[in-house]
Amino acid sequence: MRAAVLVAPETIEIQDRPVPDPQPGDVLVRVSSVGVCGSDTHYYRHGRLGSFVVEAPLVLGHEAAGTIVGVGPGVDPDRIGERVSIEPQRPDPDTEETRRGLYNLCPHMRFYATPPIDGAFCDYVTIGAAFAHRVPDTVSDDAAALCEPLSVGIAAVRKAGIAGGHRVLIAGAGPIGVVIAQLANAYGATEIIVSDPDESRRRQVLGFGATSVLDPTDGTPGDLGVDAFIDASGAPAAVASGIRAVRPAGSVVLVGSGAETMELPTQVIQNRELVLTGIFRYANTWPTAIALIESKRVDVDAMVTSRFPLERAAEALNADRTPGNIKAVVEVS
């Protein structure tokens, strides 16, 4: 099979590799569509993301969908032919975190495209059968792949406790910020304010559920009194100012991956009794993601702004540098 392999910073080679064999409990998926994530671009350009370092050739891509074409021992062969969205993680079933249902926090997690685990920029992948989620025919291949970033957003809005009538501030109008704006709208928020320094991104997000936008270069948003602040930027200044915009007893959720450490307005957090937390990937989100797409409560297809064949994976990894780009997709088959 073909595989787009990161062999050095900003160097992708198309290699011929063996088709993987599905192990007990696994399915073999012929990949159709793979979204490009910010983590992919970090590995591509810098060879690392935080504490995760690329030390050997790596196949990128973890936002993936395809069709089951084979099954391992213990899996119902009737699943062959199913179109699926891949939840790209293999937790250890015996860890305490997994047994508690928090399998995203499993210390022995094997996650697609996170060194040293290969991802989905290739023709075929294997995944545990329970992590290959069937999608209806009304859901496109691209949308099935984008259940992954949608799941990041679902984890964030769940942590933020967004409900009907809430006012929400989101920092960052990149793909995750756009997803969260759509989800805040779907979960019933009536005011969705998005802050981003890029004028084109501010304009775009107004078409994805945002009710108003802010330019942080014009000054901090001030004490807006929102019910929840979700950071999808990772920028220390955005986090600090966003915290100050939250009402007493409100919530703050950190999603963006930015500085390893940052200064926070601790007196504001304490005096207002704010609940501050982060998210790390997701757990138990795929059924919700598929239902939201199928019901058209969110539109992830509209987020796709460019498509590339597997042979042009390097171009896809640089698509974020194109003005107006929201989400690039690699079409594998």
Task: Write the SSE topology.
Blueprint: E1 2-8, E2 11-16, E3 26-35, H1 38-46, E4 48-49, E5 52-53, E6 58-59, E7 63-71, E8 83-86, E9 89-90, H2 96-99, E10 110-111, E11 124-128, E12 132-134, H3 141-145, H4 147-160, E13 167-171, H5 175-186, E14 191-195, H6 199-205, E15 212-214, E16 226-231, H7 236-244, E17 246-254, H8 266-271, E18 275-278, H9 286-294, E19 304-309, H10 313-317, E20 327-331
Parallel strand pairs: 13-14, 13-16, 14-15, 16-17, 17-18, 19-20
Antiparallel strand pairs: 1-2, 1-6, 3-7, 3-11, 3-20, 4-5, 7-8, 8-12, 9-10
Helix pairs in contact: 4-5, 4-9
Describe it for me?
The structure is a single chain. Strands 3, 7, 8, 11, 12, 19 and 20 form a 7-stranded mixed beta sheet that branches. A 6-stranded parallel beta sheet has the order 15-14-13-16-17-18, with helices on both faces. The model has no long low-confidence stretch (mean pLDDT 96). It is globular and about 55 Å long. With 333 residues, the protein is an alpha/beta fold. The chain is 24% helix and 29% strand.
N- to C-terminal separation? 12 Å
Element-by-element helix/strand order: EEEHEEEEEEHEEEHHEHEHEEHEHEHEHE
Largest sheet: 7 strands, mixed
> pLDDT under 50 segments (min length 5)?
none
Indicate the percent of residues in helices.
Answer: 10-25%
Radius of gyration: 20 Å
Inertia-based shape: globular
The amount of beta strand, in percent, is 25-35%
DSSP helical segment count? 10
Oligomeric category? single chain
Structural class computed from helices and strand pairing: alpha/beta
Compute the number of strand runs.
20
Mean pLDDT: 96
